[in-house]
Amino acid sequence: MANCIIASTSTLHGSEPLAYLQDTLINLYSGIEEILFIPYARPGGISHDEYTIGVNNIFKKINKRIVSVHMFSDPIEAIKNAKGIYTGGGNTFLLVNQLYRNEIIEPLKKAIHSGVPYLGTSAGSNICGLTMKTTNDMPIVYPPNFATLGIVPFNINPHYLDPDPNSTHKGETRETRIKEFHNLNPQPVVGLREGSWLKVYDNKITLEGNLNARIFEKDKEPYEIETGSSLSGLN
Amino acid sequence: MANCIIASTSTLHGSEPLAYLQDTLINLYSGIEEILFIPYARPGGISHDEYTIGVNNIFKKINKRIVSVHMFSDPIEAIKNAKGIYTGGGNTFLLVNQLYRNEIIEPLKKAIHSGVPYLGTSAGSNICGLTMKTTNDMPIVYPPNFATLGIVPFNINPHYLDPDPNSTHKGETRETRIKEFHNLNPQPVVGLREGSWLKVYDNKITLEGNLNARIFEKDKEPYEIETGSSLSGLN
Asked: What is the similarity comment for this entry (chains A, B) (predicted)?
């Protein structure tokens, strides 16, 4: 009976962080005053404190208070007692490493499955998939495992980018990378463009936002799905 | 007494694979008829056989024969007996995983340090750094370790891409990613643009090709170096 928003990005070009999700978040966290923040992904290498202050300033606008898991001496207890959770973006390797080192992978999974409202953006969304093997991030640290929360029965590729037909660059396109992933891994991958999110409510998964998403299944041509589509059958 | 070419990419836009390096390779592999190929990175998920056949067709033009390490029952012996080595591009996680699983990290390091001529392109260049933590690749498999050959005393970022000033995409730029790397890791990173390569000969490291490279050192502003510059003091 999960209740999650799994968003491609926290921020859209030209607007404030989370502004495009404001109504969605008021609804997600309805009746909850205090949200537990997981700052481990640390975008741009900022400190956990700086990240938390920035996020608190955003949530203040919708009358929510942020406490961060790094402020607790017992992070497992912090997760167990949380009424709502938000995991922000940054580097997925760093995030997953810290989740394992602090032994909160299982408590977090349990909290989300028990219905604690959860928002993930970027790296915080990546971890909702079966593994972090479709992250775009640089492997700046070696985590104990690539397995993640498995809130949805597939993998997420946030910040999904269509190939640029005019590019002369020889680095792999996102689509090529996901094809390589499928040579070794069976699960589908949802390419979430910036501005899209998945809503997980009870056992239903729905694509929301203004854009289509691109679905990659092993041994199939990739295909587009429209906003409003159900992904409940994808596994 | 290494003798290596560490190239950003195998292929430049609009030209044949390795064409821009042809004279350099004739010189590198001078007097050597048979080159041991390491196909483990498997670009686009092609088979080791397909990859080897393609590379053999390229090397035929400069009168070299390719044998691939995957064709030997004892890959360690294959490395020990090699007169010249080429590690091709593809996925660095896959490459490093296979190097560890086949226990050829140490033999490969020893061969290169003993002066066996070595060419690396893309993933094959990444592994010449201290770690693979500055690869651009997707973590499609979990290798036993991120430590690599350390032929040079810094890290490599192949296919280095300058930020696009017109981009509205909120995924991290390459420069941001390398900055995040430096929050956790001390070694310099050489951003090698497509068309650039490092020549390692004896104890000298030189930037070659037509382009500048971008150097990232911890707690310093990134800076450019011109082709022909020595990197021997960078560590």
From this structure: Belongs to the peptidase S51 family.
Q: What is the CATH number of the domain that holds A62?
A: 3.40.50.880
Closest among A50, A136, A116, A86 to B176, alpha carbons compared:
A136
What is the three-class DSSP state of A68?
Answer: strand
Q: Is residue A136 part of a domain?
A: yes
Assess if residue A67 is contained within a domain.
yes
Q: What is the pLDDT of residues A153-170, one digit of tens each?
A: 999 999 999 888 888 887
- Domain with B212 in it: 2-225
Q: Residue A235 falls within a domain, yes or no? A: no
| pLDDT tens profile A29-63 | 999 999 999 999 998 889 999 999 999 999 999 99
**Which residue in the set B132, B136, B176 is minimally distant from A44, CB to CB?**
B176
Q: Is the pLDDT of residue A189 over 80?
A: yes
- The reply to whether residue B177 touches residue A140, judged by beta carbons under 8 angstroms, is yes
Q: Which residue among B14, B142, B170 sits closest to A159, beta carbon to beta carbon?
A: B170
ipTM of the modeled complex = 0.91
Tell me if B64 is assigned to some domain.
Answer: yes
Cα–Cα distances in Å, from B183 out to A88, B180, B217?
A: 18, 5, 11
How far is the C-alpha of B59 from the C-alpha of B33, rounded, in Å?
A: 10
Please give the pLDDT value at position A48: 96
The number of folded domains in chain A is 1
B13 token code pair? 């836009």
Q: Is it the case that residue B109 has pLDDT exceeding 90?
A: yes
Inspect the interface and report whether the beta carbons of A138 and B135 lie closer than 8 Å: yes
Two tokens, residue A153 = 């029965």
